[in-house]
Backbone:
C-alpha cells in the first residue's frame, strides 16, 4: 500500500452554499458556537480571517479527545466558493507528513453540495487513512446545516 491518498465527500447542504462558504472563509471562529460538540475553538494566529497566508488554529473533538490543528489558508476562489487549508502543526502531524483540506461548494440543479477533499501523505504504512477526520467534517457540515435551518 502507498503512503499517499485522497478522500472526497460531497454532502447536500440545504441552508445555502453561500452561507457555508462565508462561515468557513470569514467567520470560522463562529463554528464553535454553532457546533460546540465538535469544534471547541478557532483562533487567528496570523493575518486575517479569509485571507491567503493567514494561520488559524482549530481545537476540536476527535475520538472523544480534544485535538488541535494549526492550518494556513493556501487558496481561496470566490467563484468556486473554495477555500484550501494546509495543516502545518498539531495532532494530525503526528500521523501525516502532509494534509491538505479543500472545501468547496458547488450548485447543480438548485442543489448545493459541500465537498471536502483531503489529500495526504501518511508518515508510514501503519497510519490509517483519515476517514474518521472526513467523517467528522460530514458531521460538522450537517450540524451547521441544522443550525442555520433552525434560524428564523
Residues:
Amino acid at each position: 500500500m502507498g503512503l499517499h491518498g485522497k478522500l472526497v465527500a460531497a454532502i447536500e447542504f440545504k441552508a445555502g452554499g453561500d452561507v457555508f462558504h462565508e462561515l468557513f472563509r470569514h467567520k470560522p471562529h463562529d463554528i464553535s458556537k454553532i457546533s460546540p460538540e465538535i469544534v471547541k475553538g478557532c483562533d487567528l494566529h496570523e493575518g486575517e480571517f479569509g485571507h491567503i497566508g493567514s494561520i488559524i488554529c482549530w481545537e476540536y473533538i476527535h475520538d472523544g479527545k480534544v485535538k488541535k490543528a494549526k492550518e494556513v489558508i493556501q487558496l481561496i476562489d470566490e467563484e468556486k466558493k473554495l477555500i484550501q487549508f494546509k495543516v502545518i502543526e498539531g495532532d494530525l502531524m503526528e500521523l501525516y507528513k502532509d494534509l491538505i483540506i479543500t472545501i468547496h461548494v458547488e450548485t447543480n440543479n438548485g442543489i448545493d453540495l459541500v465537498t471536502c477533499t483531503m489529500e495526504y501523505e501518511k508518515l508510514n504504512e501503519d497510519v490509517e487513512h483519515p476517514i474518521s477526520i472526513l467523517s467528522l467534517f460530514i458531521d460538522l457540515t450537517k450540524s451547521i446545516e441544522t443550525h442555520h435551518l433552525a434560524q428564523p
In short: Residues 47 and 146 are 31 Å apart (CA to CA). The beta strands are 4-12, 39-46, 55-62, 65-77, 82-90, 96-108, 111-122.
